[in-house]
Backbone:
């Protein structure tokens, strides 16, 4: 069983950058595709970015494409989300997730393990 712990959130101004980290414990971390989702108050959880187990393929939501970068270091059991040019609409709780499927998916229901989330607040 994989367990996930996010860190790196905080309060920043519009235009700033943040890097989120998701540390995984448990065996076979490098077998699982991983993703980041976010949930703003009063809204549904939405897909942000995903990465295959090897890191060879990534996928992004249109709203973050060109600003966010997902990456992973399997030797450190960690997935990252580099967020640049942050906007107030990026304010949300950010969650990392792992899927036991072999490919990346865009729906939260396809992910089996979740972290507790980290708050990102972007002021205008």
Residues:
């Amino acid at each position: 069983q994989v367990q996930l712990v996010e860190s790196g959130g905080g309060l920043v101004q519009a235009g700033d950058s943040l890097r989120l980290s998701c540390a995984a414990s448990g065996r076979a971390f490098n077998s699982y595709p991983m993703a980041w989702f976010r949930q703003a108050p009063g809204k549904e959880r939405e897909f942000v970015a995903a990465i295959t187990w090897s890191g060879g393929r990534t996928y992004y939501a249109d709203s973050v494409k060109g600003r966010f970068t997902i990456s992973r270091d399997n030797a450190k059991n960690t997935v990252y989300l580099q967020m640049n040019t942050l906007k107030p609409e990026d304010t949300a709780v950010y969650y990392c997730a792992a899927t036991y499927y072999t490919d990346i998916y865009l729906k939260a229901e396809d992910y089996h393990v979740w972290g507790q989330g980290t708050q990102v607040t972007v002021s205008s």
In short: DSSP finds no helices and eleven strands in the chain. The mean pLDDT is 95. The longest strand covers residues 18-25.
